Amino acid sequence: MFTGIVEEIGTIEDIRKSGDSARLSIQGAVIFGDMKLGDSIAVNGVCLTVTDFTGSRFSADVMHETLDRSNLGELNRGSRVNLERAMKAGDRFGGHIVSGHIDGTGQILEKKKDGNALWITIGAGKNILKYIIEKGSVAIDGISLTVARVTDSSFSVSVIPHTGAMTTLTEKKVSETVNLENDVIGKYVEKLLRFGIEKQEPEQEARGGITMEFLAKSGF
Predict the structure, then answer these.
(1) What is the mean pLDDT of residues 37-64?
(2) Are residues 115 and 135 in the same domain?
(3) Is position 94 within any domain?
(4) Ramachandran region, residue 93 (left: φ > 0; alpha: ψ -120 to 50; beta: rest)
(5) Is there a single domain that holds both residue 151 and residue 113?
(6) pTM to 2 decimals?
(7) Which end of the chain, N or C, is more open, meaning fewer C-beta atoms within 10 Å of its C-beta?
(8) Domain of residue 204, residue span
């Protein structure tokens, strides 16, 4: 588990593709202090497993599913990426619950200065936007951010100078792709509320799906 507080910006040293998968080698500094084989590292918000490392470089394998759902397949040698180690028990929880399991990607539609902050608007599909609420949390390329505005086709965040300096987000250009992970709480709530609906009689579904009878049978 991660919190979306990026520890440092790393650099892609090498990418080796084999069929539909790939192996990344990433340079860094801060995250190597207590690194071990098998550790989880969030790379642009994607949870990857350390398979090899030296004092300033680690390697991780990326499977087909991950390449399809994220922007890791668009990386090149020299690309800068956000890095975060898995959270330790007892650490401060500075961001929000981030699993490192990307829900999909979005596209930067607009960047606009607002005093010392930078407003970034991101377009996304309905499968992403249905979980995004104003003042809720979202992870963008592994960065825990607060949603400032939501429309039917996009959402916006306001990035303070510190976040801009510590991450790659403000370096991104309009039309570039970013990884998105929704707040996990909303997904669990939806799953619980829909549990058993597929077993309802057709007339129950016609009445709107969720009923008092359904909630009672489901333990609510």
Answers:
(1) 96
(2) yes
(3) no
(4) beta
(5) yes
(6) 0.86
(7) C
(8) 187-220
